[in-house]
Amino acid sequence: MPLDFVHSACPHDCPSTCALEVERLAPDRIGRVRGASENPYTAGVICAKVARYAERQHHPDRLAQPLRRVGPKGGGRDAFRPISWDDALDEIAERFVQAEQKFDSTAVWPYFYAGTMGLVQRDGIHRLRHAKRYSLEKETICVALSDAGWMAGVGIMRGVDSREIDESDLIVVWGGNPVATQVNVMTHIARARKTRGAKLVVVDPYRTGTAEAADTHLMLKPGTDGALAAAVIHVLFAEGFADRDYMAKYADDPAGLEAHVRAKTPEWGESITGVPAQAIRDFARLYGSTKRAFIRVGYGFSRTRNGAGSLHAVTCLPTVTGAWRHKGGGALYSNRSIYHMDNALITGAEMKDPSIRALDQSRIGAVLTGDKRDLGDGPPVAAMLIQNTNPAVVCPDTTRVREGFLRDDLFVAVHEQFMTETAALADIVLPATTFLEHDDIYRASGHSFLQVTKKVVEPYAEARPNHDVICALAKRLGCTQRGFFMSEWELIDDMLAKSGWPSADEIYAKHWHDCMPAFETAHFLDGFGHADRKFHFHANWAALGGDTQGMADLPDFSAVIDAANDAHPFRLVAAPARQFLNSTFTETPGSRGREKRPTLLIHPEDALYLNIGEGAPVEVGNRQATISLHAGLFDGLQRGVVVIESIWPNADFPGGLGVNALTSAEPGKPGGGAVFHDTAVWVRAAA
């Protein structure tokens, strides 16, 4: 019998940030994990991988104690020997001091991302960074491109309440696969379909689980979303679906947009996207004639060199039709700004010096191998602390990333739950708690609930929270900011008080706090986020980044992608697998068993031409690398497009190189961002 069910929140890098109920079987053991039925967004539904979280929480391979490397880098557990926490922390602090003395403070690069989305455990690493004047991190790997695209038009990071999907008559999922990556969206879509007869349209380069469930799937070529959106806008103007009164009040230049798209016919769109002109026209008419049309803007289609422009083009649609005016109409990308959190104490913002160099996390391979375009006039990176991420697997250009980590003169400490490929390349490995073993606070991008959580069970073995490690290192390094001497709960309470929200105890007692603004604000009826309060059809890319070459300021197709050519005739999409979340859950048998093995999805006609059969070994390559895996014949994509659902560990690919060996670390436009779905490759049958 369980002791009880305890409220918690999912910490993983997903817009849903699900409200959870966790079965506590003993002070150190959990059972079932289920969605909180009383939360109106989670609505009792969570993804299967988190429902199986006991598999991960009690996995026999969890790291149990600090380790020092005594063997070769990348050698796995056999290359490490246990040490005490004090010895491990002393050594990390000493090596950071040595790096600073040999070069300067920017030779140390604390490196993190979103392995937890908790604001204390994720962001406290910045407090150490700023206190010691270590190199800054340019956070580009996930949302840099999509943020730029949304901000170009809307001007503020918020949108329509996701619960309004229940009241929509048309839902467009553009560039996302919520069946796999945000299951709660499907719950609300199902309600709208059942109660209102709502239609679901999915825009995606291949037939995902979400596309299979759709009434219409617009299956376009990767990187051509801007052309599709521009062709739809052409029809909206040409056939009388444009709301001219709305645009006159709320948009910057409707006449300029109309003139621009006059030549962007559906036939033009077909020539670029591969979507039949009639299908483009039919979708435009459906969208234009449906007032309660909700666009759930995904992340995937932004991860190309022209991704920011494509996303901006999509956000123009509800402005052209005036869909923002209607309940169940408009669009949502992220609601981050509605929480207006003052997290300065957690991040040490008052100590930040913006003149210190910022190194691009997506270009870690270039950074660690000494590329002067990244390092500038500063020193090489000589020491790192890594939390909440696994760059040896998840970052672009894997081969170069690994080359950087293999440097003899680079000291790396990794704080992790498992012996990841990055941890195996470290000098010191520290065991980390899971979200069930520490306190934290969570906001979401996909809904409006602020959630405060306490630990559910005691930490496994010698595992410690990120906050404890940051504070212990700070004290050894002489830092005096008061945040280093506070508990997680004290930091949460301080932030909530400064942000104007209820206390940590109050929110924890009621499990969540709804931060959604009023309808008029959520639908921008009181103005958009720009100074002129208008939506901007004209994107000011220069204000959002330094590289604007080849970008169109109005919705269009920017031909700056890694286009297919004779040497590389296929376009590769490195899509997320349903049972993994980045490289998390790749260690659990439930997820691995369902995913089976790394597979190249290829159209049967392309496979026939290349003499590749179902399940046959294949090689995929480009200028960066060649990887090996097995073929899966799949007609749910256009010819010339291939998909590898991942992120499988490199070791699971024959030859030991995974999909990100093929992806480029070239920054997306205008201000950087990883371009995981913008890769031209060749494919051949394995010898």
TrEMBL record:
InterPro entries: Asp_de-COase-like_dom_sf, MoPterin_dinucl-bd_dom, Mopterin_OxRdtase, Mopterin_OxRdtase_4Fe-4S_dom, Mopterin_OxRdtase_prok_CS, Prok_Mopterin_Oxidored, YoaE_C
Keyword Glycosyltransferase belongs to the record: no
Record key words, sorted: Iron, Iron-sulfur, Metal-binding, Molybdenum, Oxidoreductase
Pfam families recorded: Molybdop_Fe4S4, Molybdopterin, Molydop_binding
SUPFAM superfamilies associated with the record: ADC-like, Formate dehydrogenase/DMSO reductase, domains 1-3
Domain 4Fe-4S Mo/W bis-MGD-type: 3-61
Swiss-Prot/TrEMBL cofactor(s): Mo-bis(molybdopterin guanine dinucleotide)
Keyword DNA damage: no
Family: Belongs to the prokaryotic molybdopterin-containing oxidoreductase family.
Name under which the protein is recorded: Molybdopterin oxidoreductase family protein
UniProt source species: Dongia sedimenti
